[in-house]
Each structure stands twice: as structure tokens, then as C-alpha cells.
Amino acid sequence: MIGQRCYLVVMLDWDDMAALEGALGSETGRRAAEDAATNLARLATFRGLVLQLDDTCLRQPADLRFDSLPALCRSYRATMSKGRGEEHHMASRRAAHVREAADRDRFAADTAGFRRELLAHCYRMAGSAHDAEDLVQETYLRAWRSYAGFEGRSSVRSWLYAIATNVCLTALEPRRNRVLPSGLTGPCDEPERPPIRAAPGEVAWLGPLPDHWVADPAAAVVARESLRLAVIVSLQHLPARQRAILILREVLAFTAPETARILGTTTAAVKSGLQRARARLADLDTAPEDLLEPTDRRARALLEGYVAAFERADAGLLEQVLRTDATLEATPFRDWYAGQARCLHLLGTYVLGEPGDWRMSVTTANGQPAAAVYRRDAGGVHRAHGVVVLTPTVTGISRVVEFHDPALVTAFGFPDRLAAPGGVV
Description:
This protein is an alpha+beta fold. It contains 16 helices and nine strands. The strands form two sheets. Strands 3, 4, 5, 6, 7, 8 and 9 form a seven-stranded mixed beta sheet that branches. Strands 1-2 form a two-stranded antiparallel sheet. α5 (129-146) crosses α6 and α13 runs antiparallel to α14. It is globular and about 95 Å long. The N and C termini lie far apart (75 Å). Mean pLDDT is 83; it is low at 1-17 and 38-64.
């Protein structure tokens, strides 16, 4: 093995190595070690270790250079210490992982039940279902990071709402309020021209919320009604902080002191903000209509009539379901229309087309009847077009809002295109 690196398997107990290292410090010990090492492989207690020796260190066990043994012993002990340290480190990491897994399980058990109502809360604040999802995700990330410091001085629900509300306020600071076309200007008085489309990015449009994202049969009526489109639209007229105060106090029923703690302010400031928010909404004349619940048979009949009118391109059937004072608006168009006659003229002239051009799948959004809308393309395929939300009353549909965004169709759980009657997509 001369001229190349070689390896010696030293099979010594830890204490044997320590004794050998000490013995090598004296001439007597060196001679004794030389005698003992002539047949190193016979030592009785074994603990294997491969030590790397230099070129001419040995040709056979008897040729071991004993002046290198102290260094080898020290190397062995250092290696063993390192191994024991790594084992301790790995054990510590495993224990930390076990503790973290237990904490995550406990965190999920404490917080998972509030996700849907937090999503509804963030939607009321932001006016966008997509933004609300992002805000809830950020809320849970922040909650997890601070979970170890949660001392239970408030309820978990109050703690989560404090995080979610402040996440919303931070996110909304640089953003414009979301609106519908009716929030931009008065109704269009030029029925003979097509509606004008807003430029991309010109307007921050309000969007609908799929009911199944937040549906909770046990939710209070006031909480469900607070998600209706008209309410969400009116909330967007309030400054973000006043909006938060109004929602926390009048929708979620937090007390003034609780709301103050959530927002990091005083009870007096909360009461003042609530008064200003109420006054602003009164100026907007946003008294809620007496709407039919989506499960009401009359509401279902109005929705079915509206869908049938579009699928058959039947303006006469539309006239039967729309109120005489009905309004019609659609994003991303700036124009909107008031009065049954103008709505019918617009739809008949620019929208309805031929029978079969449109297909719809019924659903609910914002606690109101709705439908996923598909339009037939030049190839005859019905592709996602958007979502329409209706406002049903005992005298007919008072408001139609269509959101021209194909991505909404899949967000509501529908495919992006429909199969032909024969089953071919």
C-alpha cells in the first residue's frame, strides 16, 4: 500500500482509546503500546471506526507508526463527539417537528371553524371575492405566526377578526373603492348607441360572491343580508375605517369596547365613526328592498323566466319578469339603464341574438338568485361569459347585474364551456 492512501479499521472501545492516548505520552507506555499493537485486530472490545492514514503509515498491522497514534486517538474521539452531537441535534429537530405538528393541529382545531365567516367579512370590506380569498390567507398566516403568543385574553374569534380587519385596512389603503356602473354616473339616456366599455384598469369593479363559499345555515339573517349586492355597493362608499366599524358593530355584533380593541382605538372613536357611517349611508338613500329569498318559489320562477328568455332570445318573456322600473348594468361597461322599456331595447338590439346563442346554469350569489352565463362562439361552442345576479321582489326583477368575466364561471364551480346537446364539447 506504499504510495497510496489506505484505511485502517480500528475497533477499540472509547475508554480503551482514551487509555491508549494517555499511555502513548510516556516511553514505557509507547513500548507497551507497540507490543499490544502488533496484533491490533485481537483487542476484545470492538467499536468500529475507519481512520484514514497517510501514504507510508503501514504495510501491515505490525508496521503501524506509533508516533501517529496520539493524533489518531484524538481524531477518533473528535469523530465520536461529533457523531453524538449530530445525534443530539437530530433528536432535537425531531422533537421540534413533533411539537410544531401538535401546535398546527391545535391551531387548526381552534381556527378552522371561522374561515367562512372571515371570508365573508373580508368580502364586505374589499368588495371582491378574489381579494377576500387573499386577505383570509394572509390573516391565517399572521395568526399562525403569532399563535404561540396568544394568551386567551380574548376569544379566538375576536382575535382572528382583529387580525383580519387590520389586514384588510392595510391592503385597502392604496386601493380605489370598487363600484358598479351605477356608481359612476346616472343612467344612460342614449338608447340608440351600444354601451361604452371602460378601458382596462380604468375602474375597480365590484364582483359577486358565490354563496357556497360562505354558506352557513346557522348564520344570522342580518349576516346573510349584509352580503347582498346593494349592501356591498353602499359599503364601498364609506372610508375603510368607517366601513370596518359599521361591519363590526352592526353586522357582527361586537360591542363598542370590543370593536375599539380590534381596531386599536378608543370606544369614543368607535361611536363617532359609527355615527358618521350611518349618516353617510342615509345620504345615499340605500334603504334595502324587500327581496325574496332564493329558495322562495316566486324567486325561482323569476330566475327560470329570465334564463328561458335569454336561451330562446325572447324579449316578450323578459318583459314578463322585469319590473317597469327595473335597472340593468354590466361590468365592464360604463353605461347602465333604468326602466323596463330601455332595458328591453338594449337587450333586444345588442344582446339577445338568436335562439340558442345563450345558455345558463342557475346558482346563487350574494344571497340572491344568479346564473353562470355561456355564449355560443363562431364555432358553435358555448364558452364561459360571466355571471348574472338578479334582485327578485314580489312584483318582479328590480335589478339585473351581469359581470362579464369568464373566470367567474369556474370560480362558481362550473366548467368553462358546455357540452353540446349530443354530449360533444
